[in-house]
């Protein structure tokens, strides 16, 4: 039977292998010529290169630079011209107001598409501004509000998994492990809001009891009081729903507060910072739901996807010394923009948006299936379960 996953597999080559040819070669069929410098594909990027989101933002910048370099080896055929990608970076300092302002400034400066926002609130702010200036935006943050309601987010597309899919996978895991009672510690803001809502829906039809729900204070303030409230209920397990560095800090405070049971993270925790020295003991043995591209193992259905993942890992590791599980979102975002430009035969922002919402492709992080009615494109069966073992993320299921 032809499955949705099979359709993604069939489409994989067009997204993943672009820009992966031998260095220096450019397609030559006698019909294309290089575009002048002012006609390149300009992608405006607003990232958390400082502030709370820097642990995620810095790896995204690296991934974008690596992917742009790969694409520019052969060029992107758009109409009868070969174009290069030009990235324009801005540091939003993890400030939503600054991130929203960047969307407008980058569009005025000539950006054809926007990428960024690794935190839920910064990505949501960019989405609001992108709608106003009618510029396609590919978000790297976690929150359903980035692309919902769709009538107000027609120019925004989310690369990360939907909260509903992560919650269902997490509850399935808890049922398999026969956990009795769970508490939830969720970060403040739109990502935490999405997690609370999705988990309550998932637990409603589960044999596992969702007990106390506590929200972390905003702005990275002390998590001690919140952790103590959770631990006081003596749950069998605690779900920490948040992005790094909050995830590791929350785990550390939970252990200090006396919680000795299991810990479960959503995909926002999967970055080196969560496993760092200060957090290492607290997170050992913890579980995370994350796209199944982490640590070289994958649910990828095609050889093209595996080749692209290995190529990305090789180039990232060679340049930066280690590969990071969160990084492929940005690589996929840039490949999706390039693919939309090829299909649109134009850099017109409206046409790019129209072709982005028809993308069905297998990326490095997982499968995407954007439609006019669905702009949160990560497929549910792209998700896997990982466990921290001896300081590393290890595939569990």
From TrEMBL:
Keywords: Signal. PROSITE patterns: PROKAR_LIPOPROTEIN. It comes from the Bacteria. The keyword Signal applies. Pfam families: Peripla_BP_6 (PF13458). Residues 43-388 form the Leucine-binding protein domain. The keyword Signal applies. Belongs to the leucine-binding protein family. This is Amino acid/amide ABC transporter substrate-binding protein, HAAT family (TC 3.A.1.4.-).
């Amino acid at each position: 039977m032809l499955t949705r996953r099979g359709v993604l597999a069939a489409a994989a080559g067009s997204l993943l292998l672009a820009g992966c040819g031998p260095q220096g070669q450019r397609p030559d069929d006698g019909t294309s010529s290089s575009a002048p410098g002012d006609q390149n594909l300009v992608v405006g990027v607003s990232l958390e290169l400082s502030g709370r989101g820097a642990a995620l933002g810095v790896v995204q910048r690296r991934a974008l630079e690596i992917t742009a370099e790969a694409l520019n080896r052969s060029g992107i055929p758009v109409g009868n011209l070969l174009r290069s990608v030009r990235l324009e970076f801005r540091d939003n300092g993890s400030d939503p107001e600054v991130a929203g302002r960047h969307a407008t400034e980058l569009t005025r400066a000539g950006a054809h598409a926007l990428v960024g926002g690794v935190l839920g609130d910064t990505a949501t702010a960019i989405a609001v501004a992108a709608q106003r200036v009618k510029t396609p935006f590919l978000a790297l943050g976690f929150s359903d509000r980035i692309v919902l309601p769709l009538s107000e987010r027609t120019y925004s597309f989310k690369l990360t998994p939907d909260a509903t899919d992560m919650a269902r996978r997490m509850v399935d895991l808890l049922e398999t492990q026969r956990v009795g009672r769970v508490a939830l510690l969720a970060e403040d803001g739109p990502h935490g809001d999405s997690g609370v809502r999705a988990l309550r829906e998932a637990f409603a039809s589960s044999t596992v009891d969702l007990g106390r729900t506590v929200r972390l204070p905003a702005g990275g303030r002390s998590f001690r009081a919140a952790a103590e409230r959770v631990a006081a209920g003596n749950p069998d397990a605690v779900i920490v729903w948040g992005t790094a560095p909050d995830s590791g800090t929350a785990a550390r405070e939970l252990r200090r507060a006396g919680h000795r049971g299991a810990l479960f993270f959503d995909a926002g925790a999967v970055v080196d910072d969560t496993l760092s020295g200060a957090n290492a003991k607290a997170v050992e043995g913890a579980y995370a739901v994350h796209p199944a591209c982490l640590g070289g193992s994958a649910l990828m259905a095609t050889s093209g996807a595996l080749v692209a993942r290995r190529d990305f890992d090789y180039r990232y590791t060679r340049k930066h010394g280690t590969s990071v599980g969160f990084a492929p979102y940005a690589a996929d975002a840039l490949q999706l923009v390039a693919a939309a430009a090829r299909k649109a035969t134009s850099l017109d922002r409206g046409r790019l948006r129209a072709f982005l919402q028809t993308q069905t492709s297998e990326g490095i992080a997982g499968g995407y299936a954007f439609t006019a009615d669905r702009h949160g494109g990560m497929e549910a069966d792209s998700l896997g379960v990982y466990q921290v073992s001896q300081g590393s993320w290890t595939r569990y299921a």
